[in-house]
Amino acid sequence: MQKNISASDKALITDLDKQIRDYVKEYGTRKDSELLDQAISDIRYHHEDQRRKSGQPFIIHPLRVASYICRAGLDAPTVVATLLHDIIEDTSITHEDIHKRYGSWYADIVTGLTKIKKTESPKSVTTDNVEATYQRMLKTMVQDVRALFIKLFDRLDNMRDMEAMPREKQRRISLETLNIYVPIAERLGLSQICQEHTILCFKL
Fold it and tell me: Which residues does the annotation mark as catalytic?
């Protein structure tokens, strides 16, 4: 576990961990629980020294998004995939690693939700990279709608935590959310998510 974590963050991590384990134990199989244990162990290890812009330990983000997936009533494999959704993008873990440890479905879902690596300066985002990322995400979501739910809840958690980001990035992500994620949530009949996304966009 990451050092120098506040008591409140430790309590939050423990609570989220328990919520997720209880849900998968009740609604999943023994194999699901085994993969969940493995996923939690992997994100604890690989995200150990990472923090969000807000200062919170990074691990809180995948745990929190997975808890939203539980509350939405999705299946246990989706919960496990949610925990892993940032591990390729933000650590040294690869598609092949996920494939070996979890299987092809998990590897494809997690890779499909991962941004295309930037080819230029870390400070620049090329149009080609952005378009390629959306094309890959769209393909993954069309193949399995569960990926779409993961992305919607991932974006919701990021929007709730957006105030720690630079103002320019807040505006860019808010515009992207209004143009892409709000219409998707609306079409899926997820009125509460649609409404909160919209409120957060205009708040920033």
Answer: 89-90
